[in-house]
Structures are given as C-alpha cells and as structure tokens.
Write a structure and sequence with these properties.
Elements: E1 11-19, E2 27-37, E3 40-47, E4 50-59, E5 62-67, E6 71-79, E7 87-93, E8 99-108, E9 113-121, E10 127-137
Antiparallel strand pairs: 1-2, 1-10, 2-3, 3-4, 4-5, 5-6, 6-7, 7-8, 8-9, 9-10
Length: about 140
C-alpha cells in the first residue's frame, strides 16, 4: 500500500511505544488502534491508564494534527516533499522555539503492518523518537 486512498475504511490494532526521557532510552508501551476514513487517520492509545486519541486530517497542501494528550489544539502541518512512505508531515510547536514535530505513516510490506511514527526535531537539528505505533489489520 502506497497511498492513503488504499487504506480507506481499514482498521488496525497493535502496540504503541512512547519515549519521554531526553535520551530516548526508556519506552512506555500501550495498546493502540489506527483507523483510516477518507483523508482522516485516527488513533487511540493510553498512558498511565488514561485513554487518549489523536487524528491527522490530510490534504494535498498539508494536514492538521491533534492529540488529546499533548496537542489538543490542531497543529497545521506541511507535507515533507520527496519523503518515503504513505506520507510524512511536519509542524512547528513551542512558543518561538522552532521545535518541529514530524509524523510519518508507512506500510511495512514484509510484515503487512501499518506504522505511525512521530519524531521531535530540536531547533539545532537533532531528532528524538517520540511515538511509534505498529499495527496489524483488524
């Protein structure tokens, strides 16, 4: 699968990984779901026993991203030109700090898994893993 249209109407279940420590050494895991409805990718996950959900509304010129845990107000994102996978998006957050949030949706052909991955990008260019959801089709 190489396009969002090919995923329309699908539902996925799997495992979410969340990295909170600055060095990216410690991961917190939870169950997760991902679903695709038209141009909207929705997901659920949990942290410390509390359920959370997020969405990416994808358009030709970019997307809007929101998540109940850390991004309740929609963040405008642009598409990363020439990126591999189904799509990659990038948005800026933080009051005048130039921190970036990159999100990628990929389909692992060998294992038939959908992967939603989110990465923090510091103003000096260093990337740190934040979230990875690896799911099988339901």
């Amino acid at each position: 699968m190489k396009t969002l249209a090919e995923l329309n109407g699908t539902q996925w279940v799997g495992s979410a990984e969340l990295w909170l420590d600055p060095l990216g050494d410690n991961v917190v895991q939870s169950d997760c779901t991902v679903s695709v409805d038209g141009n909207v990718v929705r997901y659920t996950w949990s942290h410390e026993g509390k359920a959370h959900q997020g969405s990416l509304t994808v358009r030709e010129d970019g997307a809007e991203f929101s998540d109940s845990w850390h991004q309740p107000e929609p963040m405008k994102c642009i598409r990363v030109a020439g990126a591999w996978g189904i799509f990659q998006l990038q948005g800026e957050y933080g009051a005048d700090l130039d921190w970036r949030w990159r999100t990628a949706l990929c389909f692992r052909e060998p294992t038939q898994q959908l992967v939603l991955q989110m990465t923090n990008v510091a103003p000096w260019g260093e990337e740190a893993r934040a979230v990875r959801m690896t799911c099988a089709r339901q």
